[in-house]
Structure formats: structure tokens, C-alpha cells
Amino acid sequence: MYELGDGVNVGATLGFDRSTGDFSLVPLMRAAWTVDTKWRVEALLPKAAEVSHRANKWFRAGMKSELDFSRFHLDQASYGVEDLYLEYFAIKAGPTLNVSPVKFLHIDLHAGYAFLRRISATIDDGQPGINLYVNAEPAARQIDLAPAPFLAVRLWMGLDGEPQSAQTKVN
Length: 171
Hints:
Number of helices: 2
Number of strands: 11
């Protein structure tokens, strides 16, 4: 992360993505704006964005939006199809809470509404792009689910993400 001044930090990296069937590198941009000691705006584009308020050292609340994508390989012996995958995609937004009883242990609660939810059955046939499993019944190839509320709980260990004092400043 590079400090641009006035509490604004930016950075860029590469991430791995398999949403097209192959591992590919995806550019990611991270930006964080520490408005004051309590308020922070963060984004990891194109994945997520969050505005949060730190009430004290162990409690933070905010609003978050994110893209959620998961891809699961299905066993050929069970389904009779080689390289069959089940994919899930959602666009979600809602309030988030983070409780940190100690500096390295965190519990995240994220609730809200999933505006778009889609499940697809795909085949990884070595060709670029997403290939719907054409031998499945048409209704099973891609299912658009109704928007719905959600609740996610995550327990994780690591530094709390507060700005570090040893950052590089860009003039």
C-alpha cells in the first residue's frame, strides 16, 4: 500500500480467478481512506467495498457490498460426467460487524440482501470461456435464484488491518 496523503492509501496486485474455467491472473486494486480515527472507507476492486466505523479497539460496524463467486468440481463417479462444475455467483450488500476480542482473533458477521444469485452447471472442456453443461436439462444448466436475505459468519486470525506506521509515502 502506498500512502498518497490525507489518509488515502492505494495498492495493486494480481489475484487468481477460475471463473472462466482456467486459472487466470486478475488485476486487483485496493484503496483505503482513513477519514479520521473512527471512520474508514475500503475497496478491493472489483470484489468488495466497505464503509466502517470503529467504535473501539475491539468493535467495528459498517456497510459492505461484494461479489461472491464459488466453483466446485463434481465427482465423475457420482455424476457420470468428466470435468463437471457447479458454480455460484451473487451480488450482496448489507451491514457488517467485526468483533476482535484480542488483536489477532476476529469474528465477522455480515447480513443483508443478495440482489442477484445464479447457479450454473458447467463443463471444463479446455476451451476458453464458460461452457454450460449442454446435456443437462435446460432448467438445470443455469438457475437464476430469487433475491434473498443472507447471513455470513467468519472467524479468522491475523492482523486487524489497521494502517501500519511503516508505509511508503508517494508525493
